[in-house]
Amino acid sequence: MRQRTGSPGHVLCAAFALLAALAPALARADELRLWHAYRDAEAAALVEVVERFSATTGHRVELLAVAHESFASKLVATIPRGQGPDVFIDSHERLGDYRQRALVGPATAALDAPDVYSAQSLAAVTQDGVVWGVPLSAKSVALFVNAGLVGHVPKTLEEIAALSLPAGVYPLAYEAQSAYGHMPLLAAFGGRMLAEDGSFGFVGPAAERSLAFARELAERGAVPRDADGALVADLFRSGRAAFAISGPWLVGDLAQVGFAWRVVPLPIVAETGLPMRPPLTVEAAMLSPQGVEKPAALALARALGSADAAELRQRQAGTLSVRTDVPVPEDSPVLAGFRAQAELAEPMSADPAMRSTWEPAFRAIRKVLRGQADPAEALAEAAHRFADVRRPPPAAASPTPALLLLGLGLLLVAFHLVRRARDPDARQALRRSLPAYRYVAHSVVVVGLLVFVPLIVGAATSLFAGRPGEGYYVGLANFFEILTARGGPLLATGSFWFVLLVTFLWTAVNVVLHLGIGLALGLVLSRPTLRLRALYRVLLIIPWAVPSYVTALAWKGMFHQQFGAVTGLIHAVNDLFGTSIEPIAWFSRFATAFAANVATNVWLGFPFMMVVTLGALTAVPTDVLEAAEVDGASRWQRLTRVTLPMIRPALAPAVTLGAIWTFNMFNVVFLVSGGDPDGATDILVSEAYRWAFTREAQYGYAAAYAVLIFLLLLVTTRLPAWLARRPEAAR
């Protein structure tokens, strides 16, 4: 008996299904979404502020912690689709970019009285006369003082550099090669990284003199030459630096140190009489376009910027409030030091062009400090790179030719399918194959979604240009610009052809060493008379088991010119034999930087070839080797005439895989040398990454690089097979 469609059972099931479908939407309708990038104490303080808000207003708030590196990209992917946060906390320097992408709305309605915020913080979140965020806190670098090494703080930077300290102790530690770390010194000479009109400001006499001054400090040994944030923290924490320029993030690392320290404003540069003015970052609660329309979201932003919330964050997380009605706690001299410095700081520019200054400035500073170029030459090159990245994308092209070609291709495919369908034998074969197709249908769908769809989308993206969400069709213009080196010399550093040559050299050297070392170790470990074979195999496979980025960072530390393990070995040799070998500046020349990358990648790659060799050797019949020995073949002849030919079919796919992996080995190149010197050791995949994520998010241009990489790998890996088939076809 068939049940009627309108039966009570069907109605009840349909009602439950409808409620289940609407439940998430109903739950979200009364729920606010707040995104942040806080961790540890800052995250805990934010949770308490939100819990107080929920208890007072009854509004539920969904908190989501997002990594700072991917914060902007996630906003771009979600807010335009209505799936992002109602309120999010981020740095003010991204406001210009967020406004261009329509990710943020006016926040004036969420402000308290304007006079309760510091003038700097309010100016930082104001553009075109509109306030785009509720200022929460301010962060800048300041001067950390090791009171155990110095009794008083000199007023000038020159006096700090001239301090007489114990051997091995630097007067000052700061990130000399970082563009961000150089900005306070640049400001003391009257320069700036970005001009007010959005052009590259890191040029001219002020910028040149600031770089020359930084080089003088490094040459005198007053500051470490190759210092990053981790090294600065380590030097100051271990008492090997009397002063350090760093931010609030260093405070947590000093909890267990055995000396007294304090925070004071940065000194004056005596040559100019001006103070070092660091860039000021203002963190603000910003509203998405959909959040602006919600009174509850405005109330949440107002609560985040309230005096109570500011006091809580200062007390629990040690973040400096920008409210003038919230004083620094009397028992917090560290916050008082940062407050004094913040009053002398200059808000970071929120112009979207600011992000494009970091890479050119970073490379220029490195070249000057390493003595590879004078300041004027390095800064002129940096200005050219900035202009190259900022130049307008290609003009829009008509998609008609591409659509015609696509339509013609689809017609040919349809014509072929119709011909096959009209063939009785083909129809009969299709019927017989239907059961097999049903078995593999799910695999075809999965592979299609995970492999072919991304490939097609990536290939299509290469035909577009413009900012994300505003792209337009340009045809093959991206490929034309890549293959013509953007109008510059074809073999200039950073051009496609130069990077291609480096990539081929990188791949060839690594694969040869992987195969040679792996084959040699496999042959040794396969000998049955070798003792402790199992132990050796486990030890030699460890480099392959450790994540590649961990290994890359460890090797980068070993190659550090001043504090690396290799330099320690050189000093040990000098002490032992009385020699005077100088430490190697590994990343200042192409040969040594390339060698450092290769050494790291060989360490990572030889275990794979060793394992493949061991597996292939187990398939070599012992009776064949014994027969060759009986016939008088030497050990070398047995290896070259019997063993190697028999394991070649197993090694060939491994070599192909190794070549593909090495060709795209992003981690080692990016983390060890970082492309140094001056981008000369970058390979194609790292160059594509830079165009996608550090150079104005030019995804179409980066996708064109990816398509070229795919085509190169397809041709080079399939070419031997195609060539092998030709003699067979000729016969």
TrEMBL record:
Keyword annotations of the record: Cell membrane, Membrane, Signal, Transmembrane, Transmembrane helix, Transport
Residue ranges of the TM segments: 400-418, 439-465, 496-522, 534-555, 602-625, 646-672, 699-721
Record localization: Cell membrane
UniProt KW Acetylation keyword: no
Domain (ABC transmembrane type-1): residue spans on this chain: 500-720
A family per Pfam: BPD_transp_1
Location (main, coarse): membrane
Keyword Signal: yes
Recorded topology in the membrane: Multi-pass membrane protein
Signal peptide range: 1-29
Family, per entry: Belongs to the binding-protein-dependent transport system permease family.
Name of the protein in its database record: Extracellular solute-binding protein
Organism: Nannocystis radixulma
